[in-house]
């Protein structure tokens, strides 16, 4: 397997991965609209100096992705000036359970450290127990749970 930075030539495959993420998240979020959804401006992320998009290749096929994006905290009372937000984590279904997500996490965390960023965050649906366990195993801890109510 090869872990590498994404390029503009990867865009079409990454758009397919984005829809895979949307499909995986639909059972956890009844507020998502029907049809195709685009969470990310993937070309912008690929070109940005403030972001790092990774892909994993096996036999010249892209099988996984993830990104780290430098963000500033929404408040002025955090003990850090910026953090790396991780997202776009996707592994093709037939390649899951092989430790590929850990390769992505390691690459993104390494990039963040190379930028002197020590705070790393991500979002995961609380009901997505397998993802929560995987991130906890990688060293993440729960910080905040978003609650909602439909009236």
TrEMBL record:
Entries under PROSITE patterns matching the protein: GNAT (PS51186)
A single MF term (Gene Ontology): acyltransferase activity, transferring groups other than amino-acyl groups
Cellular component GO terms held in the UniProt record: ribosome
Membrane-spanning intervals of the chain: none
Keyword Ribonucleoprotein among UniProt keywords: yes
Chain ranges of the N-acetyltransferase domain: 1-151
UniProt keyword list: Acyltransferase, Ribonucleoprotein, Ribosomal protein, Transferase
UniProt protein name: Ribosomal protein S18 acetylase RimI-like enzyme
Lineage of the species this protein comes from: Bacteria, Pseudomonadati, Bacteroidota, Flavobacteriia, Flavobacteriales
């Amino acid at each position: 397997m090869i872990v590498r930075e994404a390029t503009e030539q990867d865009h079409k495959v990454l758009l397919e991965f984005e829809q895979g993420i949307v499909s995986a998240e639909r059972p956890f979020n009844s507020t998502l609209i029907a049809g195709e959804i685009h969470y990310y401006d993937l070309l912008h992320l690929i070109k940005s100096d403030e972001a790092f998009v990774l892909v994993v290749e096996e036999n010249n096929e892209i099988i996984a992705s993830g990104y780290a994006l430098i963000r500033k905290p929404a408040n002025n009372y955090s003990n850090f000036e910026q953090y790396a937000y991780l997202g776009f984590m996707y592994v093709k279904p037939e390649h899951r359970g092989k430790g590929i997500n850990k390769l992505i996490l390691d690459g993104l965390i390494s990039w963040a450290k190379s930028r002197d960023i020590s705070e790393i965050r991500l979002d995961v649906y609380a009901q997505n127990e397998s993802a929560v366990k995987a991130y906890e195993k990688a060293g993440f801890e729960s910080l905040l749970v978003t609650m909602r109510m439909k009236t």
